[in-house]
Every structure is written in structure tokens, then in C-alpha cells.
# Entry
Amino acid sequence: MPTRPSIPARIALRRPSLSPADVFVGALMLALFYVAVRLGRAMTVNFTPGHSTERISTNLSNLPYYAARSLTRMLIALGISTVFTFVYGTAAARLPRAQKIMVPILDILQSIPILVFLPFSLAVFINLFSGSLLGVEAASIFVIFTSRGWAMREG
# Structure
């Protein structure tokens, strides 16, 4: 007995049911989005060096919040340094003339300790984002980026 062929569009339009794993992943994504928005809002607090109104609490209940802010900085810097590595490495591999300049520049920058960048980056980013804590956050992300960016060349 021949079977009747089904229309592929009908199968494609059929709605799959939600599994508990789908609900869990959706809830996890919403929670991560909420955490990212909350941490992002904390980066734009008014800040003037020497006249800061924000106090760092030594209460243990604030430790997860501070750890999440540090983790956010590290993940942002890791993402930026990964993109930098692929772009810089691809450009150096495909452009032989540029490679002769790009690789020595990176070697020279690797030999400079990261702490040398800290005062300069703090001054630049605090002036760039004057009146906002985002300048200090961006300076710390820059310092983490430089340490990761230089190390990725060795890998």
C-alpha cells in the first residue's frame, strides 16, 4: 500500500513542544540578562577622583556582587583580546609587508610591564569618561586586555 507523501512545509510549520530544558535555558538567559543590566548600571555611577560618594562595603553579603563585577570586566577584556588576536594575526599572516612591522611592535609592547600602562590608562580613561565610574572600569578592562592580548601571541 503506497504511503501518501507529506508536504515538507507542514512538518516545518509544526510547533515543537517546550521541554523542561528549554524553559531552564530561557530562565537562565533572562537571569544573565538581568545581571548584565544591573552590573552595567553600576558602571555609570557618578565619579570624581577624590570626591567619590560611592563607598566600598566590607560586608560579606556584597562579595558575590563585587566578584560578578570583576568577572564581567575579565570576560569583556577576554572577548576584546580574542577579537584583537584574530584580526591582528590574520592581518599579519595575509600582509607580508605589514607583518614586518606588526610583529616587532607586538614584541616591543610585550616587553613593557603591564603596570606601566596603568597610570597612563587611568588618566586617559578617567578624562575620557569624566564624571563617571566607567572611566575606571574601562581602564581596568584595558589593562586586562593588554595582558591577555600580549599573551595570546605566544599561544
About this structure: Residues 118 and 143 are 7 Å apart (CA to CA). The first strand starts at residue 46 and ends at 47.
